Amino acid sequence: MLVQHLCYYLTDWNGIKPRQEDWDTNKVVKCLKGEPIKGYAQVTVAGINFRLEERNRQGFLDHLWSALGRSFSSPNQSTAIVPIPNSAGVVGAPASYKTLLYAQAIAAASGGKLIALDALRWKAASGAIHKQGGARSPERRFDNLQVIQKPDRPVLLFDDFITSGSSFIAAVWRLSEVGCLPTEGLAVARRTAVQEVKMFEYRQQELEIPQKPLF
Predict the structure, then answer these.
(1) Coil, strand or helix: which one is 200?
(2) Does the predicted model carry a pTM greater than 0.90?
(3) Contact at 8 Å (CB) between 150 and 120?
(4) Which of 24, 105, 125, 213 has the fewest CB atoms within 10 Å around its CB?
């Protein structure tokens, strides 16, 4: 499955000389996570230069979602943007978890090309899962993931950032059980353990989807 991303973020800082763009992309991830932003980052989105700071984080996000929505193109009349739920997106919880709100903002700017669909929820809070071994394995996430609404149109899977890809894999497996096979994904930031030549760069990378477990 092709997964698009706008930037990389560095997770292994041992033995490297950090560059400004390494710090900048990590501040973008802090913004996405809702964590405090110390200092500032210079970020360009859709031709607009931002000095991202704590005080203007919401303005940056508003511009980011608007740019992603406007830039989406597809041969389909409409596509469902299905967010991978963050830890608050559990079965029975209000439809106000973070990645759903992000997907709704992207869809609102797409001119009707995207419709945000709250289709996936965790059976148990992610925090509880993370305390157990193998929490990042796609099999564990697949077991904890549930379809609460079947998409009736092509699907674009969305997450704010991608680390191992296990959540994307689990989502593809679970949606395939209801006859829906996402072929494309979108994330703002993608984890890297090395300094990329360009940390801010739109890329499409293939995410291998292994065969779904039989049991």
Answers:
(1) strand
(2) yes
(3) no
(4) 213
Distance CA 66, CA 69 (A): 5
Please check whether residue 28 is in contact with residue 9, taking contact to mean a CB–CB distance below 8 angstroms: yes
Q: Which tens digit of pLDDT belongs to each residue from 14-71?
A: 999 999 999 999 999 999 999 999 999 999 998 889 999 999 999 999 999 999 999 9
44 to each of 41, 55, 72, 130, how far by Cα in Å?
A: 10, 17, 18, 34
Q: Name 205's Cβ contacts closer than 8 Å, sequence gap at least 6.
A: 2, 3, 5, 190
Query: Which three-class secondary structure state does DSSP give residue 190?
Result: strand
User: Longest C-alpha distance within the chain, in Å?
Assistant: 49
Contact at 8 Å (CB) between 160 and 191?
no
Q: What is the pLDDT of residues 153-184, one digit of tens each?
A: 999 999 999 999 999 999 999 999 999 989 89
172 token code pair: 């593809």
Strand partners, 206: 2
Please tell me what DSSP assigns to residue 132. S
Classified by CATH at the fold level, domain 2-10+74-206 comes out as: Rossmann fold (3.40.50)
Contact residues for 24 (Cβ-Cβ < 8 A; gap 6+): 41, 42, 43, 52, 199, 200
When pLDDT is averaged across residues 81-96 and rounded to a whole number, the result is 96
Q: Residues with Cβ < 8 Å from 170, sequence gap 6 or more?
A: 138, 139, 141, 142, 144, 145
| CA atoms 62, 64, 66, 68: torsion sign | negative
